[in-house]
Amino acid sequence: MSKWLATLIKEWRLLSRDRTGLLLLFAMPAVLVVAMTLVQDNVLRRSGGLQVTGAVVDQDGGIVAQELVKALEDADVVSFTARVDGRAATEKDAAAWIEGGRFQFFVVLPKGLTTAVEEGVRQRVDRWMTHHADTVSGSSLPGPEVALRFDPTLRHVYRTAVEGVVERALAGVQTGVTLRYLGDALDRKVQQRIAEMTGGYAPQAGQRLIPELEDDALFHPVAGVVANGVGTSGKERLPTAVQQNVPAWALFGMFFIVVPLSGALIRERREGIWARLMVMPVSKTVLILGKLSAYVGVCLVQFGCIVLVGRWLLPLLGTDPFVLGDRTGAILLVALCSALAANGFGLMLGVVARTNEQAAIVGPVCVVIAAALGGIMVPVFAMPGIMQRISRGSPLGWAHDTFMNLLVRDSGFLEIWAQLALLLLFFAVTLAVSIVVLRRIHR
User: CATH for 52-219, among 2.60.120, 3.40.1710, 3.30.70, 2.60.40?
Assistant: First the structure.
């Protein structure tokens, strides 16, 4: 125990002298967490919390256009407005507002829209009522088209959302016109049939035989839709840029322990320190465990510092705070397994590499590649199919997916044990390779 503790203290003293390495381990991930979180937080808020806004230019003024304007203004996903600064929007004004950045799009309801819709509905209903069902889907009137004009810089996903809202609103208004005209046509048809069957002796109905459908009956939904996330505890917790980036860049920094760890091993081998340690009455296992314990401790302290940055510094910059929730123990276990995997890789590289230059190039490059494949920089779902399959072999991907299971999906140990086993297996394999190579070197 005393030999292991002495080795641990020795490694901490040596590491404390490497100011450049400490700056790399602590400052680099902290800066990355702040920078990437602030950038992604704005993107995520714009895609999930903020609405694109546009103007509605009503050139028709008829009943159909008025109903369409109301339906658009009542939309939740996209914000529409028909009156700006107390006056109706014109096409020229709307184009100027887009150029000035006030709106991202505008909708033009062309003149003759109400007439075209009502006449088209009348033709279709009359054909259906006269048993010409094969021609119901067509209309002899070409009809004007509702025009959409977008800011050229607006992303395609927002354009699709605007188009969907306009199409649904137009379909709803057209359905309302159809049902109202159909009710009138059915009422006339019923009265006509009654008169034909009674030979004109039936008294004239003083009111409609078929009640007129009200707006609530037309547009009020009968069934609703409830959107919830998938979580084992049934809690709804939406992912944020903070939850994505704090564990992601903490892992990235932890795996950069490969630089000082491999450099220390190579330096000890080159200067003969390791050879002198081998002839001392201390087992190789104690020396390796002491070195690993020191650097694993550094990784855990590093992880704690990044968590504090997410908890206290990021909210001061306008983001949500990083919250561990009720999974603190599991998160610390994942951090420990990740630190072991990172140190196992650093130990193996320090044993296999022959020079500091080799370790300084190979180590960071491997970490960056593993981070890119593991979803640290780009979400895995945004990658091509072949890259998604390759990403399953990234240790950083295993660890980050485990953090997401705990922070976002409310998973328990049964859902994360496989990733923890992979991290521990990676550590065991790299440690075994290091021991085998060390034995061959000293033979």
Answer: 3.40.1710
